[in-house]
Amino acid sequence: MATVGLDHIRKVYPNGHVGVADASFDVADGELLVLVGPSGCGKSTLLRMIAGLESISSGTLTIGAREVNKVSPKDRDIAMVFQNYALYPHMTVAENLAFGLKLRGEPKERIAERVGAAATMLELDKLLDRRPAVLSGGQRQRVALGRALVRQPQVFLLDEPLSNLDAKLRMSMRVEISRLHRRLGATMIYVTHDQIEAMTLGQRIVVLKDGEIQQIDTPMNLYARPSNLFVATFLGSPAMNVLRGHVRRQDGLQLDLGGNTWIPLDGAAIPEGWLDRELDVGVRPEHLLPAEGGPATSSFAPEVEVVEPVGNEVFIYLRHGGAGLVSRSSPQHHVVAPGERLPLRLAIEHLHFFDPGTGHRLLAGA
Question: Distance between CA 146 and CA 276 in Å, rounded?
Answer without folding.
Answer: 59
